[in-house]
Amino acid sequence: MAAKPGLVMRYTAIINYSFFETNHMSVKNYIIIALLAVLTTGTGACNKDDNSLPVNNAPIPRILRFEPENALPGDLITIKGMNFSPDAEKNIIKFNQVVVAAQSVNDTAITVIIPELTVKTVGVTVRSNGKISNKKSLSLVKIKKFQDDFDRADIEAVDKSVVPNPIGEDWEIVQGEFALEDKRLATHLGGQEGYTLYRAPEVDMKAGNDNYFKLTADITVSGGSIGGVIFNAQEDNKRFYLLRTIGTVVQLLKTGANGLNDWAAIMMSANFEGLFDDKKYRAEVSSSTAGKITIKITDPDSNGIILDRGFTDNDPYVGGVPGFYYFGLANPVNIYFDDFFLELQ
After folding, report:
1. pTM of the complete model
2. How many domains does the chain have?
3. Hey, is 116 helix, strand or coil?
4. For the residues of 66-85, what is the DSSP string, one character each?
5. Cα 280 from Cα 220, distance rounded (Å)
């Protein structure tokens, strides 16, 4: 049966339309794929050639220490370290958030003036060539240090009548005799007590209200005799604390208004193993609160601790100066003092 003309035309139109749609979608898909390829290639080229960031290969700076190790606002201080820029403009120095100008620079040292700050401790950083250093704390409370290793020529025993005092201008002989011998302070005087005080300018052994002191010294005592350290000695040269040893006995005493043998308090008297005749020991006395005293005795050869104890005095002596004490009771008398060191804040 022959098809009707109208039906043939209708089928032909449907076929042609379907063919057009099919080919149109294919063309469209090819165009989209081509565009994506072009865009992707272009984007890669831009990232590689136009948007790449420069690499900073500069080494990281590091702060190692300060010289001096503590200072006050307005003081000149040197920041010691490594990998700083020798170009001053490429270093940014901060005390907390305060930027400070460098006075001089090289790759291992930067000198600055400490800015006016109200804090007691400040964090210091250095940015060099775009790299930031570690933060290191700097104390803005100045610590005073005094020391005497007696490393000078021998001096025969002298008493307080010899002026000026040849054992050292900061030492005041109050009683007895002292000599310089083999780079140590020494005495060989038997049957008598003696003591000398260290009265250097600015020495004042305060404790509390942000003040503290630490005293250390080496002491060697021959059998039967007594040696020790004095601390917080007052202006009258009579009132002070005395840490002394005889054999294995350690005593912490407080003198009264009449001085030696007028004991206002016997704060400790006890035996301790580790102390021997003619054997050097190291005495350490420290305090950060008035009336709170820490006593430490060690063997400087082995670093072994013989005594480490705290004491309280409700009516303390404050301020004053340190010194050395002896009582030569046996024969011979060989008492030596060495490596005196005092730290004050």
Report:
1. 0.71
2. 2
3. coil
4. EESSB--TT-EEEEEEES--
5. 4
What's the CATH code of the domain at 301? 2.60.120.560
Q: What is the pLDDT of residue 50?
A: 54
Give me the pLDDT at residue 210, please.
83
Final residue of a structural domain among 139, 160, 188? 139
List Cα–Cα distances, 273 to 172, 181, 262, 305, in angstroms. Answer: 33, 29, 28, 10
* CA gyration radius, the chain: 40
Q: Rounded to an integer, what distance in angstroms lies between the CA atom of residue 135 and that of residue 123? A: 6
Tokens found for residue 6: 């109208």
CB 337 within 8 A of CB 244: no
Integer Cα distance of 224 and 234 in angstroms = 29
Spatial separation of the C-alpha atoms in residues 141 and 72, rounded to whole Å:
6
Compute mean pLDDT per 10 residues along the chain, 345 residues long, and list them.
44 41 48 48 48 82 93 94 96 96 96 94 95 94 93 97 95 98 96 96 94 97 96 98 97 98 98 94 97 97 95 98 96 95 96
